[in-house]
Specification:
Rossmann fold; 18% strand; 28 strands; five-stranded parallel sheet; elongated; 742 residues; 26 helices; alpha/beta; Helicase, Ruva Protein, domain 3
Length: 742
């Protein structure tokens, strides 16, 4: 009897059983997260990314550029923030701008001049200029008509006196009354003239009080402060959508473009990040590429200066520009994903990457790290940090109510939010995590990665930690336990996870129906995954497959439906493997049509992890041997060997729900370490079916609901588990079938 396993192989499987014990031993330094101390160094608050942290320290020392490449949620934004904090604490007083940037009128209305001045000096200069202009606005000679009024008053008096004299003479000489009338009329006219001059003088004085001199042309020559370093406390400018406007600046539109109302160009100028910020953080480099700003950024990084220009469109401000350049000695900190990196490698033969490498470094953010003592400590540190952050969130949201009304009011208000009565001692305060709860987080990080590593995509885990905190608060316990984390994981699904959950319900009913209606010949339960783009998590689900072999046709394999190139190639490899097996047993040549059907896989199938399932289903149909429908199988078949595939942990976990009715799974030998996270906080034991080793995990308490996982090296190991046939029995029956067909 052939045995594909050596004695050491069985020992390695037995060593897997020691994994939970070793993990517990590595976490003996704390009982709960209250015993975890956090580092004071800002950069050390970013967990896992050790190589990135070392590179950032070196770049901070040399004030170089930085490009971080990695998947969302790996800590790029947090590292950029910590990079800013480190530079703030070490070189901030030297990096911060000391001079104000001032704009002056240029050679014509479309040009300005830029100057760098001492802020206090330019403040005093502009203040004095404004005071003098205001004084000029109000400096006017008093308007008066006193000379005219005095002369009219003298004539009035003379005429009045003459009228009196002539009136007196008229009593003796009557013709004198004529002169009296003329002098009287003249004096009355002069009286009216005097009052008219007084009214004109009053009106003009009132007008002069409300109207100053026109000094707009002088005011338009006053310099404009575009940037005052005293008003800017941060070293870093965070740019989410980089373009010419927010990176370089420009000129605002002038709605009054003619007459005496227009605004001079130097008063319409504004600056962007290049002129004002020592550090520019571009959160998503893809937006910069889409905006077409890359060529300008490269030029500024090279020359360390730029000319301020108006917009490219027509209209006010389009023709404005500065006569002299602005300084732009910036440190560029940028982030991007791998798809953007490929574009940067092609854009200008990698010119941007070359600039970064010349004055800095390109950092690759790890998406997974080995599970060792150091990284396990960082998991505990990360959970502690999130607990503290949640406490700050509680304070920000409820701090005022707690201070004024106390926790009793918080409970009453929360009951209205939840729509139910809350525990008597309900208190909205963060809880510490027990060691078993930390183990559940480690388990989740392991499940989201592979090959014995921890996932570093932590953003989705934040939601799980917060949900577990609320579960403990609602249960009125002081410590978050493993059960709270499990409930939080169940609730906190990504979009793809929710879809996978719905599909799993359908697959459960589909599997039961197929099992009841067929003899299980040619049917096998494969295992597949859905990838979540948002969280990076893989969500497993069963994939029923049906295969059949028809003799006497062309020697082909047909896999209809939405199958990708890799899936098609995997089916062809299975055909070659079966032909090789037929040749090996000396079967006469017969043409076979091999049909592969992924049952109700409407979303399509891609990858080679179903190749061993296809082989088993085809052999089952060929030798007419039923397949155990209570076992799932996954693996990449190459010849007779089963090679490792991705997502094994999630694939197995997806069929461990007792409601699905599955009792076990066959996985590749090389994926044996992907079973380790399933052993955390669980009961299990070593098992062996003839030569094939495995582990039995009990899904419920008191050693109930066993689930057997077997580690297969070759397809014949899988035949033994799923069809209960040895290699010799399969080969004999294949030869007999071939002879009958011939």
């Amino acid at each position: 009897m052939n045995n594909d396993y050596k004695e050491n192989d069985y020992q390695w499987i037995k060593e897997l059983i020691l994994y939970p014990w070793k993990l517990q031993k590595n976490l003996e330094f704390f009982q709960d997260t209250s015993q975890i101390s956090l580092p004071k160094d800002p950069i050390e608050k970013v967990v896992f990314q050790n190589s990135a942290k070392k590179a950032i320290r070196k770049i901070a020392q040399n004030k170089g550029h930085l490009l971080m490449v990695g998947r969302p949620g790996t800590g790029k934004s947090m590292l950029a923030k910590m990079f800013n904090e480190v530079l703030e604490q070490s070189l901030g007083d030297y990096l911060k701008p000391k001079e104000a940037i001032v704009a002056y009128p240029g050679k014509d209305k479309n040009h300005i001049r830029i100057a760098y001045e001492d802020p206090e000096k330019i403040d005093n200069l502009i203040s004095n200029l404004n005071m003098e202009i205001e004084a000029a606005r109000d400096s006017k000679d008093d308007f008066n008509l006193s000379d005219q009024i005095n002369s009219v008053r003298k004539v009035k008096k003379i005429l009045f006196l003459a009228a009196c004299v002539s009136g007196s003479a008229g009593f003796f000489f009557p013709p004198a009354f004529v002169a009296t009338g003329l002098f009287g009329i003249g004096s009355i006219f002069m009286y009216l003239q005097e009052n008219n001059h007084k009214a004109q003088e009053k009106i003009q004085k009132e007008i002069n009080i409300s109207r100053g001199n026109d000094v707009k042309s002088i005011a338009d020559m006053v310099p404009e402060i575009l940037y005052d370093p005293r008003n800017d406390k941060s070293l870093m400018a965070r740019i989410s959508e980089p373009d010419s406007r927010n990176m370089k600046g420009g000129f605002r539109h002038d709605p009054y473009q003619s007459g005496n109302l227009h605004t001079p160009s130097h008063k319409r100028a504004y600056l962007g990040a290049h002129a004002k910020s020592p550090i520019i953080y571009i959160d998503e480099l893809k937006t910069l590429i889409k905006a077409g700003y890359m060529s300008q950024l490269l030029e500024i990084m090279q020359n360390k200066e730029f000319i301020l220009e108006g917009g490219k469109n027509t209209g006010s401000g389009a023709a404005d520009r500065s006569e002299n350049p602005l300084k732009a000695n910036n440190i560029i900190v940028a982030c991007c994903n791998h798809d953007t990196l490929r574009h940067l490698q092609e854009e200008g033969d990698g010119a941007f990457l070359s600039r970064i490498e010349d004055k800095g470094e390109i950092i690759h953010m790890e998406s997974s790290v080995p599970e060792n003592c150091e990284n396990l400590k960082q998991v505990a540190q990360y959970i502690k940090q999130e607990i503290i952050n949640l406490g700050k969130e509680f304070t920000n949201a409820w701090g005022e109510i707690i201070e004024k009304e106390g926790y009793t009011s918080v409970k009453k208000r929360s009951e209205k939010i939840f729509g139910m009565r809350l525990p008597e001692n309900y208190k909205l305060q963060e809880r510490e995590f027990s060691r078993s709860a930390v183990l559940e987080i480690i388990k989740e990080l392991r499940c989201r990665s592979f090959d014995g590593k921890l996932s570093t995509i932590l953003r989705p885990i934040n939601g799980i930690i917060k949900a577990a905190e609320f579960e403990a608060i609602l249960d009125d316990v002081q410590i978050v336990e493993s059960e709270h984390v499990r409930r939080a994981i169940h609730q906190h699904l990504s979009l793809e996870g929710a879809i996978s959950k719905e599909i799993a319900k359908h697959k459960k009913d589909l599997k039961k129906y197929i099992s009841s209606m067929t003899d299980s010949i040619g049917y096998v339960v494969g295992l597949s995954v859905i990838h979540s783009k948002s969280s990076g998590q893989m969500h497993g689900q069963p994939l029923p497959i049906h295969c059949q072999i028809n003799a006497g046709g062309s020697d082909t394999v047909v896999a209809p439906g939405k199958t990708g190139d890799i899936a098609d190639a995997a089916a062809q490899n299975v055909r070659a493997s079966i032909k090789k097996a037929l040749n090996k047993v000396g079967a006469p040549y017969v043409g076979y049509e091999m049909h592969v059907e992924y049952i109700q896989a409407h979303g399509g199938v891609e990858g080679d992890s179903a190749s061993i399932a296809i082989d088993i289903a085809l052999i089952s149909d060929y030798i007419e041997q039923p397949v155990n429908q209570k076992y799932g199988v996954t693996g990449s078949l190459t010849g007779d060997i089963i090679l490792a595939v991705g997502g094994v942990t999630e694939k197995v976990r997806s069929i461990m729900d007792p409601e699905l009715g599955m009792e076990g799974a066959c996985i590749p030998w090389q994926n044996k370490h992907d079973v380790e996270p399933l052993l955390i906080n669980a009961e299990f034991e070593y098992i062996q079916k003839e030569e094939v080793p495995g582990i039995r995990i009990y899904r419920t308490e008191q050693s109930k609901e066993p689930f057997d996982i077997y580690f297969c090296k070759t397809k014949y190991n899988a035949y033994k588990i799923l069809m209960d046939l040895s290699r010799e029995e399969v080969e004999i029956r294949m030869a007999e079938r071939s002879k009958r067909d011939f």
